[in-house]
Amino acid sequence: MSADGRRSVPSGLVEQALREAVRRERIAGAHFSVTYLGDAEIAALHERHLGRSGPTDVLSFALHDDGEDPLGDIYVGHDQALRQAAEAGAEPSEEMVRLAVHGALHVLGHDHPSGTERNECEMFRVQEEIVGWARRATAAASES
Known about the structure:
The protein is of the alpha+beta class. Helix content is 52%, strand content 13%. It has a single domain (11-135), classed as Metalloproteases ("zincins"), catalytic domain (Collagenase (Catalytic Domain)), CATH 3.40.390.30. Strand 2 (58-62) and strand 3 form a beta hairpin. It is globular and about 45 Å long. The two termini are 25 Å apart. 30% of the residues are buried. Residues 1-6 have low confidence and may be disordered.
């Protein structure tokens, strides 16, 4: 547990998963910052930037122009990630990786049209492939 009572985040695994996302997109260079926020902080960003109230799981902001290497800020709702992991029966670290990858894919230009089923959306397919890759990498590391 961290000093503020939150579980530590899998920063090394998140970094590896984001590198895998960039590799799969065949992009020479991309830069992301990933910040984990509590409910109040992410709810404030959600309201300020999207006009929606309440906490959300992830927000991302692309900060680059066309033709530039991708650059973006990703904000993961730590508390929301923990709730979603519990609801889905997933490991909290896996959900945090999933949300960071989701934000990175937005920065890299992916989108998911509203009303589209998750299993019909290319962005979610790529996201889950990367999460699966991270899961296998974690399992392999724990076996050695």
